[in-house]
Design goal:
Layout: E1 5-9, H1 13-24, E2 29-33, H2 36-46, E3 50-54, H3 62-71, E4 80-84, H4 89-97, E5 102-105, H5 110-143
Parallel strand pairs: 1-2, 1-3, 3-4, 4-5
Helix pairs in contact: 2-3
Length: 144
């Protein structure tokens, strides 16, 4: 399986570097954003396979960014993983309620990050294949 296109949005340079270094080992193509506004702009340009999104960022926090991603028809199906130093139940539930597909806490465990990313990317590829197959079936039926 070739590497996924992943957008990492985090205002902390060290966190961005750690995450990109961990995921580069698996051949992923990585792009970074430093805030929510930049993340939204880049997501529209790149159409990534996955977005890793820090909660606490300037300009627009990760929860609002996630909600805006979900409201954008072009980006609504892109998997989002919230990454946060907040580890309480309420924070995790707020992330999921905002539309995140998963939630990871900092400090990030490299193996857990890599395994979760691999799983989410694989499931998203299956979803896209299923959608393509369904579209082909509809087109085929229309030709009959």
């Amino acid at each position: 399986m070739s590497g996924a296109l992943i957008l990492v949005a985090d205002d902390e340079p060290v966190a961005r570097e750690l995450i990109t270094n961990y995921l580069a080992r698996d051949g992923h193509r990585l792009h970074t954003a430093t805030n929510g506004v930049e993340c939204l702009r880049m997501a529209r340009e790149l159409l990534p396979d996955l977005i890793l999104l820090d909660v606490m960022m300037p300009t627009m926090d990760g929860l609002e960014t996630c909600q805006r991603l979900r409201a954008d028809p072009l980006l609504a199906e892109v998997p989002v993983v919230i990454i946060s130093t907040l580890d309480d139940r309420t924070s995790r539930l707020n992330g999921i309620a905002a539309g995140a597909d998963d939630f990871l806490t900092k400090p990030i465990d490299s193996l857990e990050l890599r395994v979760r990313v691999q799983s989410i990317v694989r499931l998203n590829r299956y979803r896209k294949l299923h959608e393509s197959r369904r579209e082909l079936e509809v087109a085929y039926d229309a030709l009959q």
